Amino acid sequence: MTDTQLIKLAQAGHQDAVAQLYEKYVEAIYRYCYWQTNRNKEEAEDLTQDVFIQMAKSIKNFKGEGSFKNWLYTIAKRQVNKWISRKYDATMTPLFDNIVETEEYIDPVEQEKKVSLLNDIISNLKPRAQKILKLRFLRNYTVSETALAVGVTESNVKVITHRALRQLQGLAATM
Known about the structure:
Radius of gyration: 22 Å
Structural class: mainly alpha
Distance between the termini: 67 Å
Helix content: over 70%
Largest sheet: none
Shape: elongated
Order of helices and strands: HHHHHHHH
Number of domains: 2
CATH class of the largest domain: Mainly Alpha
CATH architecture of the largest domain: Orthogonal Bundle
């Protein structure tokens, strides 16, 4: 059967058609997820399962305007982006929680004021810019790691970083 025939049957509620679509595309989707998770077999298996659960839930919405394969890869990309977001958000620590102590005395009240001021300045940035700066400068991610974590291109990471730093300079100068 063709994809079009299987999709129409699946949209009508035939589970065999859903199973055939699964069998036809599971290996390709798994490979995509495997490479997107840096060859993590367990995560790739979980993501592949999530993709096909989402496919089964939303196949009635597939209109056939593009290829089914591309539609399925779009679902996979969204699932991978959610996974990346969850993974990197869970590993991020709040800004300035790990301030290194020095031998000289630092007034805790004064230090708290500085941390509060920096957090206030950074909070004026867009959420994506905040996340990129935290990944790049607090977590020491490379441009490519940051791009993967945020779901943008490396060029976009560089542009957002440059603009955010320039905006921070302007905000800091006014405070």
